[in-house]
Structure formats: structure tokens, C-alpha cells
Amino acid sequence: MEIVEVDINQYMTIWAGTGDKVAFKGAACKDGYEGQSEEYSKIFQKGQVLTVKRVKVYDSSSDVQFEGYPGEYNTSLFVDVCIDEAKATRRMYQWSSRDL
């Protein structure tokens, strides 16, 4: 398991895609909904690097799924480690131009 230093003032891009790497901010992070950081700290270690399986972007929130971990997690409790910026930019434009 890879552990990296994280800055809890940074965020993960909601445009991350399959194979991108993010890390958990830890229980001290107060982003997300009440109790989420404590709940997630029972599953992940602070700084634990995770591989993105899928990100779901909604109008006012976003969730991420990880390879090897069931469920969906609030993206605000994770920070970018290694993101393909070109692919993330394309995903952003595809989402923003969707037919509402």
C-alpha cells in the first residue's frame, strides 16, 4: 500500500478517470458531509493512494469509486496524486456541454 503526504486544503479533480490516482485526506479533514471523514478513516489510511474506477458528477456533488473497494465516496475527501490532465479536461467539456 502506497502512502503519500497530503495537503487537506487541496482537492481531487472531479474529472478524474479510470486509472488516475488520488489519496485520502484523513479523519482530520472536515470537508464532505458530517461524519464522512471519520467513516472513511475506518476504511482508508491518511495519504493512502487509491486507483479511480469511476467518478459520478452531479449538479452539486460528486462521488468516486475505487478499484478494490466497494461503494461510492465523496470526492471532497480525496486529493489528486497522478491525474491525466488532458483526459480530465476533455471529460469536463463533455459534461458541461451535455444537453440539460
Question: In a nutshell, what does this entry contain?
Answer:
The longest helix has 12 residues, at 85-96. The protein has a 5-stranded antiparallel sheet, with no helix packed on it.
Describe this protein's structure.
The chain is α+β, with helices and mostly antiparallel strands. The chain has one domain (21-96). It is built from 2 helices and 5 strands. The chain has helices at residues 36-40, 85-96, and strands at residues 21-24, 49-57, 62-66, 69-74, 78-82. The chain has a 5-stranded antiparallel beta sheet with strand order 4-3-2-1-5, with no helix packed on it. Strand 3 (62-66) and strand 4 form a beta hairpin.
Indicate the low-confidence ranges by residue numbers.
none
Largest sheet: 5 strands, antiparallel
Structural class: alpha+beta
Q: Which percent range fits the helix content?
A: 10-25%
Span between N and C termini? 41 Å
Spatial strand sequence of the major β-sheet: 4-3-2-1-5
Radius of gyration from the alpha-carbon trace, in angstroms:
13 Å
Task: Label this structure with key terms.
100 residues, 2 helices, alpha+beta, five-stranded antiparallel beta sheet
Write the layout of secondary structure elements.
Elements: E1 21-24, H1 36-40, E2 49-57, E3 62-66, E4 69-74, E5 78-82, H2 85-96
Antiparallel strand pairs: 1-2, 1-5, 2-3, 3-4
